[in-house]
């Protein structure tokens, strides 16, 4: 039997889409979480010194988006043709762009610089992306691509709590289509079961 192990910090963030897809596939996996003080010792053991990783039968893989896309293909959520797959990849990359913008604020070690970034982030960057996402979902009958569930939808909902945590706001406020999408994804039986049992101490 194939073994799977996800390694990441004790948070959702970039590992959660992997956990969502493994759960969607009904794959049992070891969810190995470590604390930040353990990272210096673990870092040299990781490919390219980064996490999350997915270990499959002893083979340690890095690059979370590539891993998630691989699992999505196994799940039949990666598009019915090359064009649909492209649209899904574009949606995921746009979500990544927003995540990186928020992380640029949240992880800025300079307090003065960080404070200066907050108003533009909240008043300009987040509305720019989230309003576009809401419109895209509205135009695609409740999903990011072609009116059906794809890994772009799972990816968005999987990272959403972490985006809200970093931004210190509810990014879905006033965006009914994204709210409805979140509710639909969280009602998928396998995702619902995972969310119910996952650790809840960190976003």
Automatic annotation (TrEMBL):
One of its GO terms (biological process) is glutathione metabolic process. It catalyses: RX + glutathione = an S-substituted glutathione + a halide anion + H(+). CDD domains: GST_C_Sigma_like, GST_N_Sigma_like. The keyword Ion transport does not apply. Keywords: Transferase. Pfam families: GST_C_3 (PF14497), GST_N (PF02798). It comes from Aphis gossypii (Cotton aphid). Belongs to the GST superfamily. Sigma family. It comes from the Eukaryota. PANTHER family: GLUTATHIONE S-TRANSFERASE, HEMATOPOIETIC PROSTAGLANDIN D SYNTHASE. GO terms for molecular function: glutathione peroxidase activity; glutathione transferase activity. This is glutathione transferase. Residues 81-203 form the GST C-terminal domain. Its EC number is 2.5.1.18. Residues 2-79 form the GST N-terminal domain.
């Amino acid at each position: 039997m194939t073994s799977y192990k996800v390694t990441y910090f004790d948070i959702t963030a970039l590992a959660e889409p992997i956990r969502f897809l493994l759960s969607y596939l009904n794959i049992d996996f070891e969810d190995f979480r470590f604390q930040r003080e353990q990272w210096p010792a673990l870092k040299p053991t990781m490919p390219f010194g980064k996490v999350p990783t997915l270990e499959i039968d002893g083979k340690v893989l890095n690059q979370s988006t590539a891993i998630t896309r691989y699992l999505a293909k196994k799940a039949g959520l990666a598009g019915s043709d090359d064009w649909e797959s492209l649209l899904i990849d574009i949606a995921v990359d746009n979500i990544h762009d927003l995540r990186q913008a928020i992380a640029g604020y949240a992880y800025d070690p300079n307090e003065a610089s960080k404070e200066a970034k907050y108003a533009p982030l909240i008043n300009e960057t987040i509305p720019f992306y989230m309003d576009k996402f809401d419109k895209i979902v509205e135009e695609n009958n409740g999903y990011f691509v072609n009116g059906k569930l794809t890994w772009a939808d799972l990816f968005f909902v999987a990272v959403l709590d972490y985006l809200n945590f970093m931004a210190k706001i509810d990014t879905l406020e006033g965006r009914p289509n994204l709210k409805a999408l979140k509710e639909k994804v969280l009602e998928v039986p396998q995702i619902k079961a995972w969310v119910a049992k996952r650790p809840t101490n960190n976003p």
